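Field log, afternoon session.

UNIT: design team B
ACTIVITY: writing a sequence onto a fixed backbone
BACKBONE:
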């Protein structure tokens, strides 16, 4: 989703939520308001590790090349909104939207190549920095609240999530090169490579909420059906085409877990704390490399994995 489309979408969502919030109570009769609208803004940190590996093909090793962005620290800003209907045919139904964006302040990258199966006879390894990498998430969904008792409810949900990552590689350092040991040390040329991912997923989940006058605790478990695509630009590879050096495609699945807590200071706002975990993995897919002479090659993308843990705190407003 490009920036213009995202900005337009968020403007529409904000106006829709505000239109409900600003209608006077008498417009709905003497009973309670038809919906509860929540708006959340927060800031936090996500630490994630992205790994992909390809096979050699044509009798080559089952793992030819592997790249890991390890412990990348994203400082993230988050906005979310929801509308829970209290009256009419949509009673207990909820619509929600969530948006997160962040930039990496720390993280390392390892790029390794192997001659034999199962990561045997590593002949090349380099380290680099993932600083400046970016990540963006947007989620649209619907849920339904089944009231168990006065304080508890079960909340099945269905959503669409799009995650994009622009993973960078800079400040290269060669630590293994069995064919040319003179290459060891800092790269002689400026490393500025990128790997841009797109994770689109259908999300099915179940939530449990306990709410009292001043406290709200929410636990969500999620299952993701994933569609994965990535494009890379390996800027120091003169034998590769630029700006698109290779592409990846794969399907997969994953799991997510979220735990949030809100303490209500007043009818209007609450302090909000949130923790989450993501564990995503693709099935075998396709790697297509584009060469500088116009030709291309294809091999197996063994898998791509994304594991992340995040924490955020902010304010939750109720209207």
């Amino acid at each position: 989703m490009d920036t213009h489309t995202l900005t337009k979408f968020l403007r529409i969502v904000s106006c829709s939520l505000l239109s409900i919030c600003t209608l006077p109570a008498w417009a709905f009769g003497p009973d309670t308001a038809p919906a509860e609208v929540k708006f959340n803004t927060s800031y936090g940190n996500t630490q994630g590790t992205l790994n992909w590996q390809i096979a050699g093909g044509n009798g080559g090793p089952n793992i030819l090349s592997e790249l890991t962005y390890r412990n990348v620290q994203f400082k993230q800003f988050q906005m979310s909104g929801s509308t829970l209907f209290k009256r009419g045919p949509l009673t207990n139904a909820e619509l929600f939207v969530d948006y997160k964006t962040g930039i990496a302040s720390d993280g390392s990258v390892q790029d390794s190549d192997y001659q034999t199966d199962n990561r045997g006879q590593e002949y090349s390894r380099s380290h680099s920095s993932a600083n400046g990498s970016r990540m963006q998430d947007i989620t649209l969904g619907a849920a339904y609240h089944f009231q168990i008792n006065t304080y508890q409810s079960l909340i099945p949900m269905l959503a669409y999530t799009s995650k994009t990552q622009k993973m960078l590689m800079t400040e290269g350092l060669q630590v293994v090169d069995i064919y040319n040991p003179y290459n060891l040390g800092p790269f002689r040329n400026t490393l500025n490579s990128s790997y841009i991912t797109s994770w689109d997923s259908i999300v099915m989940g179940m939530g449990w909420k306990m709410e009292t006058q001043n406290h709200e605790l929410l636990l969500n478990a999620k299952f993701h059906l994933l569609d994965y695509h990535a494009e890379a630009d390996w800027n120091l590879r003169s034998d590769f085409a630029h700006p698109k050096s290779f592409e990846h495609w794969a399907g997969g699945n994953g799991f997510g877990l979220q735990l949030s807590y809100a303490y209500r200071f007043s009818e209007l706002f609450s302090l909000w704390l949130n923790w989450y975990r993501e564990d995503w993995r693709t099935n075998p897919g396709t790697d297509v490399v584009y060469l500088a002479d116009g030709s291309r090659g294809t091999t197996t993308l063994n898998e791509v994995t994304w594991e992340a843990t995040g924490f955020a705190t902010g304010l939750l407003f109720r209207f």
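LOG NOTE: Confidence is low (pLDDT under 50) at residues 16-30.
NEXT ACTIVITY: expression trials, pending approval
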